[in-house]
Design a protein that fits this description.
The complex is a heterodimer of chains A (550) and B (199).
Chain A: E1 12-17, H1 21-32, E2 37-40, H2 55-60, E3 73-76, H3 101-104, H4 115-123, H5 138-153, H6 180-191, E4 197-198, H7 237-242, E5 247-250, E6 254-260, E7 266-272, E8 278-288, H8 294-301, E9 326-333, E10 346-350, E11 366-371, H9 376-383, H10 392-398, E12 404-411, E13 420-428, E14 434-439, H11 444-463, E15 468-472, E16 510-512, H12 527-546
Parallel strand pairs in A: 1-2, 1-8, 2-5, 3-14, 8-16
Antiparallel strand pairs in A: 4-10, 6-7, 7-8, 9-12, 9-15, 10-11, 11-12, 13-14
Helix pairs in contact in A: 1-12, 5-12, 6-11
Chain B: H1 3-16, H2 18-39, H3 52-65, H4 74-77, H5 79-87, H6 95-112, H7 123-133, H8 137-151, H9 163-168
Chain lengths: 550, 199
Amino acid sequence: VSARQYKNSHAVDFVIVGSGASGGVLARELAQSGFDAVVLEQGPRLAPADFEHDELKYWVESGISNHPVSNPQSFRSDPASRAQQLPDRVPLRYARMVGGSSVHFTANYWRFHEIDFNERSVLGEIPGTGFADWPLSYAELEPYYTKVEWEVGVSGLAYASPFDPPRTRPYPMPPLPVKSSGVLFERGARKLGLHPFPAPMAIVSQPYRGRPACINCGFCMGYGCEVMAKSSTLFNMIPEAEATGRCEVRAESYVFRINTDRRGRATGVAYYDSEKREHVQKARAVLLAANGAETARLLLNSASPQFPRGLANSSGLVGKYLMFNYGARIGGVFEHELNEYKSVQCTRILHDFYNADPKRGFYGGGGIDARIGAAPVIWALQNVAKQPAWGAGFKSALREFPRSMLVACHSTSLPLESNSVSLDPELKDAWGVPAMRVTYRDHPDDLAFARFHQARGEEILQAAGAQKTWRIPVTESTNAFHLLGTCRMGDDAGKSVVDRYHRTHDVPNLFICDGSSFVTSGRGQPTMTIQALAFRAAEHIAGFARRNEI
Amino acid sequence: MDSSRRSFITSSGQALGAGWLALNWPGIAAAAAHAHDAAASPAARTISNLTAEQARDIDAIASQIIPTDDTPGAHEAGAVYFIDGALGGFFAAHRDEFLSGYGEFTAAFAKDHAGVRFADVAADRQIEFLKTFDSTGFFQTVRFLTILGLLAAPSYGGNRDGIGWKLIGFDDQHVFEPPFGYYDRDYPGFVPYESQVKS
């Protein structure tokens, strides 16, 4: 498929590890700026016609995501205990294919607000946490948020939310059609004096740059889009990078080590091809965009006598400060049919509880949305009221499917040094590479806010006239799709892994840009910000390369 | 995805050009996918991983989890065929565990019902017994697999003719147009707020 192929021995300008939300953007931007780029992606390359409406394959089995047998991970909530594999699942899940998790994401595309970047200065220290300001402001990132909306393709209504941060351009296309869950959510929330608004989504509501408008099939969350209406990098950034003639995307190429020379500079990366044969791709600079879990693992697996704690890890912080975003949910059933399985997952959200309020007695902020309660299987397994669990009563609860919806409450996770990705001392993956060990326990404030937020969500359902509502219990997290914070940005080389331009403090020609760069978690829906960071990083990296500063 | 849909889309692209395809693809892909779903041959109704007696008991348990009343239940959906297939397929790693759980189930049942199988007693006695057994891992597993057997894609052997989907009110189409439900029919449009709230 690729327009151009490079030899391993040819030192390309950039080798990019990962082809997802950020890797795709980096590849396109650098290739369009005139540089050679080889993108190495561990997973396969699939086409829209390969995607299916198959809940068993995509949700019960690992489908297009990392597999618990070939890509195992261990988990523990207590850093003092021995980590164990979870039955039939991995704690940190991502789509393992060209396009990465931008293929299977739900496509909620909020911008972060100004407060997300300087909250530590506003609120002060939170003892026992790594709560810190970002080394950049919302104003610095704003042009790149706009770039994401136009280049990647986001549907939405500018300034619909009174809490929206400033913007320089409207969205390129209107919001997707409202669903019944959105109408009910809006009705209930307005009654309570709140400010619901059309959800910004990275799904095109009109034909856009050669891609057709959404056909409302309903299978977004966890699935690939069969008509390319979802703005996955597989459908936009990757083909646009290849079209330059300066970018090769090599699928089924699993990078397991970054190589360095005696001067401490990166020389390329070692990877396995689909036959598990080892290769080395030489490069003048290495860009990691492997996601907030795999990027940290790759750096730790690149330890050498020169870098005994792992590459770019003089701070000891590679893998630390892992953050998820909490997601509390409430189910509701109404008198008439909503048919939430039709169309995109989410059409109305609100940001009234975005800011933390010290008067509550705990830190936290978030955004609430109205959405489908999942397609039939997952709805029946997870989101139906728990009791009765079987028999005539259960069957009658199953038949509430068309009349049901969820309210989802997305919120902050505080950065804790003890929450981390590290290497499991024994567990190896199918290639014999040390597997990741995940240590995670929500901060008590994260859970307290999630419960507070969930109560607000339930009030909205009740105000909308739900016949019944139920809260899905808020318990400690043991899994996540939002993989954030493990190579945090900062000006102080002792307290961060990358600088404000995503260059590692330790290795001048090694850059990292993905969810791992986050200093704080935001309130949810991180991909928009990951891509804004990637557009900004690419501009700076291209500048460094032109000025011979790499 | 079957090869006919893939080759159909590919050949359409070559014959008609990318511009035409971009505008018309959603309809084509959806129509092709739907034709594929409709043409999918139902999995054979054979039991190959369970014994006939095991299958009768599992079918009986599944039939109490999602019973048949004036509407079809797990039995009509063929959940037991799904479960049998799963034990040789995606759930094969748990087959031994499943069968030993089944052994515990029959042993527990036999304590008060000597000489008679679970599948052969009246529904009220089945329900009474399951109430004493529904916290076990085995029951939870059968429940999990029964739900899948009711609602997973028919190509896995359950959800015969989409019975499960019809039961709960899910329409297996690829293209929908608004209004999607009752409440979005008369939506007047989004009314903007008067002013920005500064936080």
